[in-house]
Amino acid sequence: MTDRKTTSPRLVNVRRVSTLTGVVALTAAGVIAVPEAFAEGEAAEQTPVIESPAESVIEAEGEGEGEAHAADDEGEGEGAATEGEGEGAAHGAEGEGEGAVASGSEGGDDVALLTGLAFMEGHIRAGLALYEKGDFAAAKTHMGHPIEEKYEAVEAQLERSGHGVLEEQIAALAAATEDQADLTEVKALFSNVRETMEAVRTDHSAEQQVASLIGLTRIAGAEYTAAVADDGSVSDLHEYQDSWGFLRVVETEATQMAESDDEILASVARVFLDQVALTAQIYGDLQGNGTFDTDPSVIYGGAARMELASLKLKSSSIEVEGEGEGGEGEGGASTASEGESD
Predict the structure, then answer these.
(1) DSSP E strands, 3-74
(2) pLDDT tens-place string over residues 72-90
(3) pTM summary value
(4) What does the domain layout of the chain look like in residue ranges?
């Protein structure tokens, strides 16, 4: 079976710290549900129920939903995933997925870990962008969330893999933000965080990394839903900014994957990036200003397309494995023939 971990140029030596100015939105779909360990109770209380937009988009488009979502036999449970989105939007929806991930997808614990890392990075990216804009109060809030509310969910796995230093790195970044340190120092500390996160990602397969990005996009959709009011206005800037930060992570990782020597992985990543561009219409600036449509279904619709695209990774792996088994069979047949002729 092809191991895509070793063929992608997005390995640990690729250390990209992308500039967070400019608002390019993106969308993606969920192979996995949103991790439960990342739930924030206060948002769950404030958030309305979502009627599973991703599922409705897929039904409307009819693009192979049977394969992508009716995966009851495989245990991937799109129904459960979208149900998770609906039960508590925003951080509440984030919480629905970890159990489903662990029981419903291959490498569930690993995918949950990667999603947790991406979730923390999304908060940090939103905080850094706000810091650059001079909104120190909002930046401090975003920078503090990873340690205060998320890190515990991934702590044990990071310690076991030898990446426990990440906690100190994130804490140092949050402290520098609190002290309103020079932007250059803050960016350097973020670079340290990114380096460790990339090292963790490198230890996981392309399929797991892609699954985590889809899961994070699903979270972004829930956050965005929580951020907008019935009249279409942005009513919760924090959730709006969170969703933006999460999508920046997807964008950065997909950009790296698109440069992979593995053409299948690269083609999947390009679909992700195409969906990034489509969501520009639902974001203004970081303060929610500008002319744009506050339509969360744009994120969920893109998520569905990303999920469908990600199936290429699984099918290609099955084909490679099948070829190997066929080869063994042919070899066995050949040997048997030789024995008979003798």
Answers:
(1) none
(2) 444 443 433 333 343 334 4
(3) 0.66
(4) 17-322
